[in-house]
Amino acid sequence: MLSKREKKLIAEIWEKLTPVAEDIGSDALLRMFASFPGTKTYFSHLDISARSTHLLSHGKKIVLAIAEGAKDISQLTVTLAPLQTLHAYQLRIDPSNFKLFSHCMLVTLACHMGDDFTPVAHAAMDKYLSAFAAVLAEKYR
Amino acid sequence: MVKWTDAERAAITSLWGKIDVGEIGPQALARLLIVYPWTQRHFASFGNLSTNAAILGNPKVAQHGKTVMGGLENAVKNMDDIKNTYTKLSVMHSEKLHVDPDNFRVLAEVISVCVAAKFGPSVFTADVQEAWQKFLAVVVSALGKQYH
Questions:
Q1: Sign of CA dihedral B117, A48, A62, A60
Q2: What share of chain B in percent tops pLDDT 90?
Q3: Helix (H) and strand (E) counts for chain B?
């Protein structure tokens, strides 16, 4: 469960990262594709090489959605409703992959934030990304 | 047997050469106990773990973190036979310590986050991360091998 303080911290972090959404998102995706090659199977229709237009725009999309959810975490199910439908009926990404992406996002944040990615921020972020993934998969079955 | 490319071997040994076991080890163990508090179940004898500050300042946590991280040295030195290198440790974790082997995977993830925070994106690139995580995955698998 996320405390009030943690929700505030998460919202602050993602607000700061919104201007660099492209960089953060594409970095996390690139790391996921390198470490977990099976995840590439969902992107056979795109060019996902480093700094490609597709990778940058897709990374940006994902980060902006995560940042939007962070603005009011108690409303995640409402905020993510359209994305829930998209993932359940069209994309049908196996939800185990959300864990892999979340881990790579934590690594990206650690790289980007260094010492500012404190144990408290790490714990809060891990909880938030888990909650985000769980809500995203809610309509799957 | 695990196949390592030359690039992976180089990445792992280079990164290991930069890692200060006495620095990253304590950080990683403290983070494990903070981010996944249920892991504290294995450390009842460590004294005060009741707050993040207590965990971060706990000397037993620091010492043990250093020990655990230092244990990776054997894997780096024996990259082509990690499984056998960890047979005794695996037996110990299973039969004496009763640690759920999934915890090894979780600690490995936390170690990677600590390493990322320490070295940043120019050192801990996507390819270095891949090699490092593959290395840790082999260690994790070896530690879980003797569980029956």
A1: positive
A2: 96
A3: 9, 0
Q: Measured between alpha carbons, how far is residue A127 from residues A13, A70, A122, B108 in Å?
A: 14, 12, 9, 18
Q: C-alpha distances in angstroms, B93 versus A114, B89, B125, B136?
A: 32, 6, 32, 17
pLDDT tens sequence across A120-140: 999 999 999 999 999 999 999
Identify from B113, B134, B138 which residue to disrupt to test chain A contact, counting A C-beta atoms within 10 A and taking the largest count: B113
ipTM of the complex model: 0.87
Q: What is the DSSP letter of B68?
A: H
Q: Which residues of chain B have a Cβ shorter than 8 Å from any chain A Cβ?
A: 30-31, 34-35, 52, 56, 109, 112-114, 116-121, 124, 126-127, 129-130, 133-134
CA distance B2 to chain A (A): 16
Measured between alpha carbons, how far is B10 from B128 in angstroms, rounded to an integer?
9
B68 in Cβ contact with B25 (< 8 Å): yes
CA distance linking residue A53 with residue A68, whole number of Å: 22
Per the CB < 8 Å rule, is A119 touching B120?
no
Mean per-residue pLDDT, A66-82: 97
Rounded to whole angstroms, the Cα distance separating B127 from A23 reads: 17
Residue (of B11, B114, B4) closest to B56 by Cα position: B114
Residue A71, both tokens: 């603005």
User: Which residues of chain B are within 8 Å of residue A34 when distances are taken between CB atoms?
Assistant: 126-127, 129-130
CB–CB contacts below 8 A, A to B: 60
